[in-house]
Structures are given as C-alpha cells and as structure tokens.
Amino acid sequence: MKVRRRDVTYAEKTSADAVICQKLKARRDIGEMVDPQNRNSPLAVYLASPGEINIDRYINCMIREGVEVVAPRWNGKTYDLAKLKGLDEKNLRRGPMGIREACDADFVEPKEVYAWIIPGLAFTREGKRLGYGGGWYDRLLASAPKDAVKIGVAYLFQIVDDIPAEPHDITLTGIIEG
Q1: How far is CA 43 from CA 111, 152, 158, in A?
Q2: Which domain holds residue 136?
C-alpha cells in the first residue's frame, strides 16, 4: 500500500485532496459534533505526511469557522492532542517522526473529542483500519467517547475487502475516499 501511495501522481493527489476536503465539509455528522452552536466538540485531525491525503484546506476552513481543531503532538512517550492555532510556520514544527505538529499549544483529552479524521494505510467499508504499526490512533481512540464520529480518509485503492484486526483495534464509523 505504501508503494501504491508513492506512485500516485501529483495531479491525482491534488484532485483526491480537494475531493476529500469537500466531502469532509459536507459531512453532517462531523458538522453536528463540532458546531460551536451545538455540541462544540473539538475536531481531531491529522497533519499529513507526504504520502497521505492532505486535508489542510479543510483544517483551515474549520479554524476560520471557529471550530477548535486538535492534532497529535509527540510528548516524548506517546501522542497527545494539541490545539492548532494555524497551519503556518509560526504555529507548526516538525516532530521527531518528521510529522508537522503544533509548536506551543494547549492540550485536549481524547474523551472530549466527538469528531475524528484519521489517516491509515488501508481500510474496509465496514470501518476496519490498518495503520502504520505503532497503535497511536488506537490508543487515542480508546479514550474517545463511544458515540464519537471516527472518519478515515483514503484513496479509492486503499479500500480493500478485508484487513487483519486485533482486539484493541478501533472500528471507524465511516470512510471517505477521493
């Protein structure tokens, strides 16, 4: 799957990025959770590594709309959820794994987050997710509310019939492909 992702052309990637950002914006279940006038939950996102679907356009839109957006930030042992102030150089740094993360930030507990956007290597339509082997998202999601919306984002080729799953793997509530 990593090789297939690496073979995606720039045009295919930018098209998929834009389609997925539009589909995320249209999701009523996410909107209801993060709406400042409704539940007002923080929105947990990821900051894309080079091969992943880039959702920066969606993140910027949510921040402009007043949604509290959080993303994983390495604390030396594991990942916490740090509030994002913006996606420019003054607000982000490269973490130890080369992934962008918030510089100076306040933190949010996963139990406070009712909407999650999650990357992965492969997904099934039933919500199984194959990550990168560290279990970071499963640990964060284990503390999320049971009724949290958990959406995976993927290229169409990343959606497969079946993938291996462990008892601790968290099932997603939906997949968006581009």
Answers
A1: 12, 14, 24
A2: 2-177
The 10 Å CB-count burial string (b at 16+, else e) for 19-30 is ebbeebeebeeb
Mean pLDDT (the chain) is 91
d(CA 14, CA 157): 16
Could you give the CA distance from residue 158 to residue 89 in angstroms, rounded to a whole number?
A: 31
Q: Is 25 helix (H, G, I), strand (E, B) or coil?
A: helix
74: β partners = 79
Cα gap 159→147, rounded to integer Å: 23
From its phi and psi, is residue 44 left (phi > 0), alpha (psi between -120 and 50) or beta?
beta
pLDDT tens across 84-141, in order? Answer: 999 998 999 998 878 899 998 899 999 999 999 999 999 999 999 998 878 888 899 9
36 has a pLDDT exceeding 80: no
Q: The domain spanning residue 26 has which CATH number?
A: 3.40.50.10420
Number of domains the chain contains: 1
Tell me how far apart the alpha carbons of residues 143 and 125 are, in angstroms, rounded to a whole number: 23
